[in-house]
Fold Diacylglycerol O-acyltransferase.
Amino acid sequence: MVNEAVEALSPAARLFHAPRFNCHIIAILGCKTSINPSVIKQGLNLTLLNHPRFSSKLVMDDKKGVKMKWIRTTVNVEDHVIVPDYDPEMANPDQFVEDYISYMTTMPMDFSKPLWELHLLNVKSSEAEATGVFRIHHSLGDGASLISLLLACTRKTSDPKALPSVPEHKGKDSGGGRQGFWWLCLAIWRAIRLIWNTIMDLLVFVATLLFLKDTKNPLKGESDGVDHEHAPRRIVHRNVSLDDIKLVKKAMKMTVNDVVLGITQAGLSRSLNRSYGNQNSSSLPKSMRFRATVLVGLRPTKGIQELTDMMEKESKGRWGNCIGYVLIPFKIGLENDPLDYVRKAKATIDRKKLSLEALCTYSIAQFVIKIFGFKVGGAIAKRVLSRITMAFSNVVGPLEDISFYGHPIAFLAPTVYGHPQALTIHYQSYVNKMTIVLAVDPNVISDPHQLCADIQESLTIIKDAVQKVKNT
């Protein structure tokens, strides 16, 4: 049954259709068994196709493509689930899967149907018996919401009727019971710091728009950004132990985000130092400006149960891209003490937590798009992002093994492409592992596997340093 509902695109969703800012989300699902396409299609018909965004096509209201709207339509799942032919005697299955996903990033979406597709590769690789690859246009929703929606289509492997469990964010104690003069002074001081940090972050954002660029380095594209719209992206991943990350977290009294940022800084420092010609002593430029953009969701992500109810009852709910940008400075350099990488990462994150940068950049983007149009908004976003080296994100995943319509999942590896940066690093947790996902422009970064190895090796070095301190 087709509901002729019409809904205009939000300003943020229109931004992802701006010229040279055509962003897509890739979600790779490694399966422990071969994939039955008929079972997958049946499952999608009962769940995902009931979600308004996955059963609506994008329609231009005018010839200039300025006015856009979602219109519900009849969805033929056969048009969205793709099972390619392949040579069963191929010499290198891992390379085939990697090349296939890279090829996907060069193909334009078909706008005559809802903007998503699922490719099923029954190719046994070193990490999975088969691989499913979702490609979803970013205008359908922000990354965290879309990953949560996909998880709502899964069930615990140990209990096929139970939804996956995802760690809940625990906010800090606000000290509601504390009173008195010193508590009031602390609150005033925090408010002053919040205002000051927000002002400074906005000044840096404006400076980046006008003139401030990252230091030219081997991981950065050209100054005007990567010509990404039709250029291939190479997407690689590597699994590391989440327990190792938690060991460092507990010993250093930090968060997983602190540790993840720390090992990334360490891995990038190793990689860049090698590129500049020396592995053992520092060859890095002094005072190197190296930053990452982080997209921050401003609307609370719907719970998996709520998303499941939405699909089962075909109910409406608030959905879309409600995201702001945060610019994170990376400390690039060789440290004598490996633990300094995570200490500096914690200091950076603590400083960014005490700022309204994400809310302000979101509000600015909304204002610009409404007043000047999404093409101007896209040009501004592209100009800012092209002056920053990379994009970075970290998403929390299920605590237990899950199955996708009866197919046990070995790993999850989401990422994004279409933005004007040569490097995107994404972390995705799943049970007791953390998957590092890199999406790179191969014309800039020729060996992403080595970069993955540098980050993995950095985790090992930092973990060993923690254990050495504990044993002394």
